[in-house]
Design goal:
The complex is a heterodimer of chains A (about 350) and B (about 60). With about 350 residues, chain A is mostly beta strands. Helices cover about 5% and strands about 40% of the residues of chain A. Chain B has one domain. Chain B contains three helices and three strands; from the N terminus they run βααβαβ. In chain B, strands 2-1-3 form a three-stranded antiparallel β-sheet. Classes of the chains: A mainly beta (about 350), B alpha+beta (about 60). Chains A and B meet through β18 and β19 of A and α1 and α3 of B.
């Protein structure tokens, strides 16, 4: 009998395709993205074990057709078209590699003009990328995921993957306050099941980032210093597949046609400063500037956050308030949505 | 000084580097604030009011 596998034996390689690698080798839809990655972007992604497999269920375009003259389904009455759907991969990651999290920040807005090693700016009006099939313009906008399997000819390789959402969280009582990231990749191209021996780039298997809430020494809300118990931020830039090309129903590219949205929540100790925010910030519908970080190696800034709630928690540990918010671009789009530094 | 004249308030960014990161690319008129210079601003403007409320700019 063949041996049983442990979920901990599966590993994940994650990188950004070099869209302009030449001869369309890294283009949208190219199955050779793993060999044509942005230099230094291929990392060993130590997501929580056991990690998720690719969700293949939506890869089928499925229908069950009840036909006249038959009271039960025949085999031919079940329509299953594999290739015209989409595939997703969800991850949950206690951030431990700087390049990995910077890759994710970039993939949420590939048209950025930031120096990612310094900061990532999500501007007032993010420009969508061109995701046409075989587009090889000089922007690196697709990720790829390789799930390496102990049964080595069953590796999963998802190319041309769009990072649709990226969620950050830090909590004083969870994981030692460390930064956690989760999100979902989507592809409209069939994941390839093969023996894939691609590996991470030099030193990109290091645990070289261990920042969290307790490193956030410069934390302010509405211009006042506050004591924070937890903080979360969700960036959303969803994608949809477009029609099909070729003979197998794979997508003809993508559109990221939805709203580029950033929402979050901050939980603060209630004291005479924060107590006043109920009236002075929320009820007056004025935007607040939120900064959680240390200004350099871990920093989340939302210059124009609009408060969307006020939830008091009167626990024995003390009174806190959870304030959900939505990032805006301020009056007449005069501000950036968010500035994030993870370096 | 005539009785109708009023004192002009000038403001500068509390932290010009942070101001530049948050607002710098969005309007050319922010250049002076990004550079740490004091400029005259309309306190009735909602963006300016937000900056004052959030201590993003301070009166010179």
């Amino acid at each position: 009998m063949a041996r049983a596998f442990s979920g901990r034996e599966y590993t994940c390689i994650f990188g950004i395709a070099d869209n302009n690698a030449g001869s369309q080798a890294g283009a949208v839809g190219a199955a050779t993205q793993d060999e044509n990655a942005v230099s230094g972007s291929k990392v060993l992604l130590r997501v929580d074990a056991p990690m998720n497999d690719i969700d293949f269920s939506a890869g089928y375009n499925r229908a069950e057709i009840a036909r006249a003259g038959s009271t039960a389904l025949r085999h031919q009455d079940v329509v299953n078209h594999y290739g015209s759907g989409m595939w997703t991969w969800d991850f949950d990651y206690l951030v431990d590699n700087e390049k990995a999290i910077q890759n994710m920040l970039e993939l949420m807005h590939p048209e950025h003009s930031s120096t990612i090693g310094t900061s990532m700016v999500y501007p007032a009006n993010p420009t969508p990328s061109a995701y046409g099939h075989l587009d090889d313009a000089d922007k690196n906008k697709c990720g790829f995921i390789i799930l390496q399997n102990p049964d080595t000819d069953q590796d999963r390789y998802m190319h041309s993957a769009i990072l649709q959402n990226l969620d950050f969280s830090m909590d004083a009582g969870t994981d030692g306050g460390r930064l956690r990231a989760s999100g979902q990749f989507m592809s409209g191209y069939k994941p390839i099941i093969e023996s894939n021996s691609e590996t991470f780039d030099t030193n990109q298997n290091k645990s070289d980032y261990a920042k969290g809430l307790f490193d956030c020494t410069t934390t302010s809300f509405g211009g006042s210093s506050v004591t924070v118990r937890s903080f979360s931020l969700s960036i959303s830039n969803p994608a949809n597949r477009i029609g099909f090309q070729g003979s197998s129903g794979e997508t003809d590219g993508y559109v990221r046609g939805g709203t580029f949205g950033i929402t979050g929540s901050i939980t603060m100790k209630i004291d005479d400063t924060t107590n006043a925010f109920l009236v002075s910030k929320w009820q007056t519908n004025t935007n607040v500037a939120i900064q959680v970080g240390n200004g350099s190696t871990i920093d989340f800034s939302i210059p124009e956050a609009n408060i969307s709630g006020w939830n008091m928690d009167m626990a024995d540990e003390g009174v806190f308030v959870e304030v959900p918010f939505t990032a805006t671009s301020g009056t007449d789009a005069g501000a950036n949505l968010a500035v994030i530094k993870l370096t | 000084m005539g009785k109708n004249s009023k004192k002009v308030k000038k403001f500068k960014a509390n932290n010009p580097k942070v101001f530049a990161e948050w607002y710098g690319a969005n309007a050319p008129s922010y250049d002076d604030l990004c550079a740490g210079k004091a400029v005259e601003l309309d306190e009735k403007n909602s963006m300016v009011k937000h900056w004052i409320d959030n201590k993003i700019i301070v009166e010179e």
